[in-house]
Amino acid sequence: MKATRKLGSVMAVMLVFAASAILSAGSQSGGAKKLEPIGPVPVPADNPMTPEKIELGRMLYFDTRLSGDSSIACAKCHDPDKGFSNGLQMSDAYPGTKHWRHVPTVLNAAYLKHQFWDGRAGSLEEQCLGPIEAPIEMNQNFAHLVEKLNGIPWYREQFRKVFKSDVTMENLAKAVSAFERTIVSKPGKVDQYLKGDKSALNDSERRGMELFTGKANCIACHHGPVLSDNEFHTTGVPEIEPLKTESDRIATRHFFATGQKYPNPRSVDADYGRELITKSQSDRGKFKTPSLRELKWTAPYMHNGAFETLEDVIEFYMKGGGNHPNKDPLLKPFELTDQEFDDLLAFLEALSSPEPIKVQRPAELPKKGDGTL
Ligand code: HEC
Ligand code: HEC
């Protein structure tokens, strides 16, 4: 098993090498930044995947009892029928509160180095507990949740089987993360093309790829197997109206800044992105470069859902991005003919699976216990 994996990755390296030779002709940005076929999902050494663990994680992901009022599961905001996001500009929120960011998809999050739009978590395991506790998301108390789940026989037994322990939040995060590592793209036509099958893309998609790596220079930030450099950039996506005018959303922004110990949190008059974490002004307006796989299923786009369609996104980049004093100099205006516009769009769409990626919803959730432990 291990030997096969190793062989697989050696072969992947060789194929990437071949692909970079194919692409370098169209690339302005040198050899290091290239598209790569998607490979096996990275799995941390201290959280190996097993079928029982994945099954436990799947139940937890769909279980509304993880939230304080038993109304919200991870799957409410990261809905498998909506590309593992929620199809809306803004996230859902705990009853009585309003959210201030767009739900990033869980699809392929396992490939990203940083989690959240501002990158404040470094792994899925670290990310998982945030929403459960957050008063604007699931508003749950950890100590209480641990007791509640320990009282449900299937959970208690499954945790013992998988982790040789009763329910703990740390192990809950591990199980959910193992499940999330199954929510990934299968290799598609762009991957086949990158591996040398020239017929995998049609002419328009192929020209679109050349624009992506050439004149439009998307490759400068969107490269690697899920088309993210795992860095942070200011692109100047415009602020959206609800975040200027709805006091509940503004309250959430100030609450978040307070939680991050940002000095003078009520002065935070826009989403400062990465700066809220690092407190460095040079990070103002920076957000994580998201994956560009499966975009067909995950609209709207950007940290605040400002753009409804991929056409809107391309038009934004053609103007050299938005207006922001901190805008990344990599963004420069460029022109596309109508044909080129369609070609770039066709390439972006080719990065999506032909059908939405599915996971099995549990037919029913583990039943309450009868008091025996
Ligand atoms: C009420 C809606 C809501 C619920 C419930 C929720 N999330 Fe999220 N999730 C979000 C939002 C919004 C973000 C982005 C927040 C930010 O960047 O500050 C996010 C971010 C994430 C990310 C980071 C993805 C990336 O690319 O950065 C992952 C992974 C994730 N959530 C998984 C989960 C899991 C697992 C659960 C259940 C334990 C969960 N979420 C529950 C709304 C929700
Ligand atoms: C300077 C780096 C950079 C360049 C160049 C760049 N992007 Fe991005 N891209 C980002 C960042 C950062 C975000 C997230 C911004 C935000 O959420 O406010 C993003 C977001 C996106 C999204 C939204 C994805 C989602 O799930 O919400 C799409 C689509 C996209 N870029 C496509 C492109 C295309 C097409 C090009 C070339 C025309 C391009 N990008 C060039 C950095 C870049």
Question: What does this entry look like structurally?
Answer:
- This protein has a two-stranded antiparallel sheet.
- The model is unreliable at 1-31 (pLDDT under 50).
- Helix 2 (51-62) packs across helix 7 (169-180) and helix 9 crosses helix 14.
- The chain contains 14 helices and 2 strands.
- Helix content is 38%, strand content 2%.
- It has 3 domains: 27-41 and 186-236 and 285-360, Cytochrome c-like domain (Cytochrome Bc1 Complex, Chain D, domain 2, Orthogonal Bundle); 51-180, Cytochrome c-like domain (Cytochrome Bc1 Complex, Chain D, domain 2, Orthogonal Bundle), CATH 1.10.760; 240-276, no CATH class.
- The chain has 373 residues and is mainly alpha-helical.
- The structure holds heme C (HEC) (2 copies).
Radius of gyration: 22 Å
Q: What is the N-to-C succession of helices and strands?
A: HHHHHHHHHEHHHEHH
CATH superfamily membership of the largest domain: Cytochrome c-like domain
Task: Write down how many β-strands occur, each being a DSSP E stretch of 2 or more residues.
Answer: 2
